[in-house]
Design goal:
Blueprint lengths: L1 H51 L1
C-alpha cells in the first residue's frame, strides 16, 4: 500500500511538472497569437477607416 502511494506520488509529481512545462508553452503561444490577432485587427481597422473617409 505504501509503495503504491509512493508510486502514485511520483507519477503525480512528474505529471504536474509536465503540465507546468506544457502550460507555460501553450500560454506563451496563445499570448503571441492573441497579440498578432490584435495587431492585425488594429491595422485592418485603421486601413478600413482611412479608405472609407
Amino acid at each position: 500500500m505504501i509503495d503504491m502511494l509512493k508510486r502514485i506520488g511520483e507519477w503525480i509529481g512528474d505529471y504536474i511538472c509536465e503540465i507546468i512545462l506544457f502550460g507555460t508553452l501553450i500560454i506563451t503561444i496563445v499570448l503571441i497569437v492573441l497579440c498578432a490577432v490584435v495587431v492585425s485587427d488594429d491595422s485592418n481597422d485603421t486601413s478600413s477607416n482611412t479608405s472609407s473617409h
